[in-house]
Design goal:
The protein contains 19 helices and 20 strands. The chain is α/β, with parallel strands linked by helices. It has two domains: 256 residues, Glycogen Phosphorylase B (Rossmann fold, 3-Layer(aba) Sandwich), CATH 3.40.50; 183 residues, Glycogen Phosphorylase B (Rossmann fold, 3-Layer(aba) Sandwich). The protein has a nine-stranded mixed β-sheet, sandwiched between helices. The longest helix has 18 residues. It starts with a helix and ends with a helix. The protein binds alpha-D-glucopyranose. Alpha-D-glucopyranose binds next to helix 3. The site of alpha-D-glucopyranose has 14 residues, from helix 3.
């Protein structure tokens, strides 16, 4: 009886003025300016681009109005040109590409083969200031500016310093998402004048970090809410072991530090509709059609075409964080038993080592050293197992993509992988190893191989993971409730 009474309460028509006002404001959209240094499909070097491409798409389907801002890089072709920026309207979202040919018309986003561009501070300082200038120019006064990583952290800093008395931004709050705490934007003190901030901002409670400028630190201090891309990583970064020197700053922020697990974009990653792959498939056709994709890839790579041999895929930056040190140790053993295909760019030491191995194990290993979206899709579709032995992982998207493609992920239980992968022995969808060492990685691989030998059990897991839902629909709801609505006072009255 009680239950029915409660339900009736919700169905009452608002009669007093206050509730009418609330029901009207409930329709009010949250105005969000979302800025990032890379956004798929316009520019991509890693997971940040995928997130920055997908989250706005999910938000615009909810109660949000979006302007998305990024640099105008060399390959970008906007639909319309304005003074100082280009624009494109895609799916109800206005993209704004901030132009400066000297800063952004370059071959790469952040680096040359000799290391980072020496003027990265100047470039992203310019971008951050222009974000605010252009928002004023187009008269879009946002409730929230959502910044991502160090490259856009200065937007949060400037909102609370240079623009603190601005009428235009007086109700604007900022959210900063950290995709990887390892990259902080650290520069020599001599560059401080680039920012145009008073010297008292070069202070331990502001941008100073061991005698240098730390842009991400400034962002963390000045953003109203700091978010990172999984709940476990949000906890880990407040510890000395994973805090990359900023654990103290993050502990001070703990009342406004949240962790929202990323999702993936099923418009991009879906074997039923994927134009890049040889044979499309759904849950029901997976066991047959995945084998066709696998045979095709085996043939193209010059491997033995045999479904009994487990094909392992890896699409990753080739850096220590992604577990390359462990992989190097087990490579001989792995390549003696299984087939392995690796795609990605990265550090020279790993590239050289892997290239050597490729020569030695021509029939069971290929290494492709480039960013190749199309080939990435083909690997996800063809591989049986996806290798992800990350030393630490803020979130990780590959395990979620693997699920969708019925490719079982093998992961080290770290960060976002802890939040998104359960072991098959627990009715989950992945193979997990807990201690970060080569022996445990090899044991996990052998466990995967045992499971693979029993095709019925393997297919039960494939079926299970393809039905998982890691869409942005859930993750965007969390951003709205845990960050945007919490900050925008007027809007939060409607919840
Ligand atoms: C970074 C992180 C990765 C995360 C991605 C998107 O690339 O290393 O774990 O999934 O950003 O947030």
């Amino acid at each position: 009886m009680e239950g029915i009474g409660e339900r009736c309460l919700f169905m009452k028509i608002p009669k007093n003025k206050n509730s009418i006002l609330k029901s009207q404001t409930a329709k009010q959209k949250i105005k969000i300016a979302f800025c990032a240094s890379e956004i798929f499909p316009f520019a991509k070097t890693g997971g940040l681009a995928d997130v920055a491409g997908a989250l706005p798409k999910a938000l615009v389907k909810k109660e949000c109005e979006l302007k998305v801002l990024m640099p105008f890089y060399k390959n970008i072709k906007p639909q319309k040109m304005c003074n100082g920026y280009g624009t494109s309207e895609v799916g109800g979202i206005d993209f704004i590409f901030i132009k400066d040919d000297y800063f952004f018309f370059r071959d790469n986003l952040y680096v040359t083969k000799d290391g980072d561009y020496s003027d990265n501070l100047e470039r992203f300082n310019f971008f951050s200031k222009q974000v605010l200038n252009i928002l004023m120019k187009i008269n879009f006064s946002p409730d929230i500016i959502h910044c991502n990583d160090w490259q856009t952290s200065l937007v949060s800093v400037y909102l609370k310093t240079i623009y603190k008395d601005s009428d235009f931004f007086k109700d604007t709050k900022s959210v900063l998402t950290i995709h990887n705490l390892e990259y902080q934007g650290i520069f020599n003190k001599e560059k401080f004048s680039v920012l145009g901030l008073p010297w008292n901002c070069f202070d331990v409670n502001c941008l100073e970090f061991y005698g240098k400028i730390n842009v991400l630190k400034g962002g963390i201090i000045f953003a109203d809410i700091v978010n990172t891309v999984s709940p476990t990583y949000a906890e880990k970064i407040t510890t000395q072991k994973y805090g990359c020197g900023l654990d103290g700053v993050l502990r001070n922020k703990k009342d406004n530090l949240i962790g929202v697990l990323n999702g993936i974009d099923y418009d991009v990653w879906n074997p039923e509709t994927d134009e890049h792959i040889y044979k499309k498939y759904s849950v029901t056709s997976a066991s047959k059609n995945k084998a066709i994709n696998k045979a095709k890839l085996q043939e193209e790579l010059g491997f033995l075409v045999n479904n009994e041999v487990m094909l392992i895929g890896m699409v990753s930056r080739l850096v220590e964080q992604k577990g390359l040190a462990l992989i190097s140790q087990v490579l001989n053993e792995v390549l003696g038993k299984y087939q392995l295909v690796i795609l990605g760019e990265g550090e020279d030491r790993y590239k050289e080592l892997l290239k050597e191995k490729e020569k030695e194990f021509k029939n069971s290993f290929t290494l492709t050293l480039r960013m190749d979206e199309c080939f990435a899709h083909q690997i996800y579709a063809a591989a049986d197992l996806f290798l992800m032995p990350s030393k630490f992982e803020p979130c990780g998207l590959s395990q979620m993509i693997s699920y969708k493609y019925g490719t079982i992920p093998l992961v080290h239980h770290a960060g976002g992988l802890f939040d998104s992968v359960e072991d098959v022995s627990n009715c989950g969808g992945g193979i997990i190893f807990k201690k970060y060492n080569a022996k445990d990685l090899m044991t996990a691989l052998d466990r995967a191989s045992k499971l693979y030998e029993n095709k019925d059990s393997w297919n039960v897991v494939v079926n299970r993971i393809m039905n998982y839902d890691f869409s942005w629909a859930r993750a965007s709801d969390e951003y709205i409730s845990k960050a945007y609505r919490k900050l925008a006072r007027v809007l939060s009255e409607t919840v």
